[in-house]
Amino acid sequence: MSKQSSETMLKFIEIDGEMPAKRDAKIRAEDFGEIYADYIKTKAQEQSSRCSQCGVPFCQSACPLQNNIPDWLYLSAEGRLEEAYQLSAQTNSMPEICGRICPQDRLCEGACVIEKSGHGAVTIGAIEKTLTDNAWKNGWVAPISPANERALSVGIIGAGPAGLAAAEALREQGWQVCIYDRHDRAGGLLMYGIPNFKLDKKIVKRRIDRLEKGGVKFVLGTNIGPNVDTNVDTNVDPNISTDISFADLQAKHAAILVATGVYKSRALQVPGCGAQGVIEALPYLTHSNRLGLGDKVQMETAKGKDVVVIGGGDTAMDCVRTAIRQHAKSVTCLYRRDQANMPGSARETKNAMDEGVKFNWLAAPQSIHDTNGEITKVRAVKMRLGLPDRSGRQTVSPIQGSEFDVKADMVIQALGFTPEDMHRLNSEIKLSKHGTIKTHPTRFETNIAGVYAAGDIVRGASLVVWAIREGRDAAMAMHKYLLEQSMCAAEE
Ligand SMILES: Cc1cc2nc3c(=O)[nH]c(=O)nc-3n(C[C@H](O)[C@H](O)[C@H](O)COP(=O)(O)OP(=O)(O)OC[C@H]3O[C@@H](n4cnc5c(N)ncnc54)[C@H](O)[C@@H]3O)c2cc1C
Ligand code: SF4
């Protein structure tokens, strides 16, 4: 490191790590606005200067996009904000979105060396968000304008982060890109899953508008495949959804990307789970997001109810915090492992606790009880942690005689998601034993020539940052494929 950069950086001893100010828990629980304020420019610079500029940056290896974090922190600390943004945008299609919703404690910030030395990680996500929000404000986010227009077109099924990231990369190379989605708005789970208090929908819309202005076509309200899987509540309005077959799409486009995500909810299997008032997490969140977007929806809200949410991941945390904002009487989260083993972001769990959610860790539902069809309580049992299983996670087993009741008139199941039956989309496509689409590990091509897949439908329910990474990688492989196709066509 040069003398100049060592003077700018390594300030982690004299400057404490500081997140942007959070709105007071009581106040923020009254609305669906984002909870963090923006860093002021000088604060972002100051926080960036805490980076120790490691020779081997573990933060970069822990980021699924391998973002060049130390270099953009250095540029930011120097006040060279446009350059810092440009560098961060080279590897990330939506840095301001990742900065908001990546579980940084498990990724970049969790690997930060100064975190390990007890000084508190560099607040990488908050700085990444600030740099890109600032770039939008200053007009530094350039429109997409390909150097050459190319004739061949790509059909992308799914307008979630994987599809959007791939569309951007392919369009930048000049290919004609058309994204199909069964919902009436693009964005996938960024739009209809993740609540506004984590990710304001204007931030998502801004990205979609940029793609549209750059020539990407969106065909919304259109399901690809023979029919919506009737076993899955896709939250799609049947009145606006039309169907196009996969074969029709293949005939229309030179290559296809399947980026359809995973939408089949893992169901609770205890006596009483079919009672009215036991609902699935995603329709609940989708309806809440639709209300926020101004749509007229019929939905059961949590207002005045004793709500029990079952699960410990991001979806469960979004449900408990949505229920708080809908003025539930009480909100309890039942999770069968302990806090340390929760799969969701530790930061979001803390936010939920501050907002008044009660956590019952090491507790699993045993049965749901009702009187005349109205839920009254969830009977749960205490669990004990055992030895780690093959995946390394500690197993759990019930403690005999430890049953207890939690008052409830609404139960939300947030136990995770698995893929829909992808053979309904295409009967030839090879699937893994988990039902996800099998692809080449780096090129993301399926067993069908010209058909690629990326995001949750390949990896299983995962993270936005991984969907972006795979969308970008698949796009690069598709670019090569399309170049070959163009050359073959020219030779004929
Ligand atoms: C409630 C919730 C909260 C989450 N919170 C976070 C978080 O805080 N941080 C984080 O990193 N990750 C979070 N995740 C995970 C993250 O949202 C996903 O990993 C990511 O969105 C996957 O991107 P994708 O593009 O693969 O799929 P999706 O975002 O699911 O998009 C797939 C799109 O395909 C469309 N589609 C599906 N089938 C068809 C078809 N046959 N025809 C046409 N269109 C179709 C769908 O309508 C959808 O728009 C959360 C997930 C949920 C459910
Ligand atoms: S994309 Fe996510 S993991 Fe990577 S640097 Fe940004 S916040 Fe960290």
Polypeptide structure, described:
With 492 residues, this protein is α/β, with parallel strands linked by helices. It has helices spanning 3-8, 25-28, 41-48, 58-62, 69-77, 81-91, 95-101, 113-116, 124-137, 161-172, 189-192, 201-213, 246-252, 281-292, 314-325, 346-354, 456-459, 464-491; strands at 153-157, 176-180, 217-219, 222-224, 242-244, 255-258, 264-265, 278-280, 306-310, 330-335, 358-361, 363-371, 374-388, 394-398, 404-407, 410-413, 417-418, 451-453. The protein has three domains: 3-137, Orthogonal Bundle (Fumarate Reductase Iron-sulfur Protein, Chain B, domain 2); 153-264 and 418-491, 3-Layer(bba) Sandwich (FAD/NAD(P)-binding domain); 267-415, FAD/NAD(P)-binding domain (3-Layer(bba) Sandwich). Helix content is 34%, strand content 17%. A five-stranded parallel sheet has the order 3-2-1-6-18, with helices on both faces. Strands 8-16-9-10-11 form a five-stranded parallel sheet. Strand 12 (363-371) and strand 13 form a beta hairpin. The chain starts with a helix and ends with a helix. The model has no long low-confidence stretch (mean pLDDT 93). Iron/sulfur cluster binds next to helix 7 and helix 9.
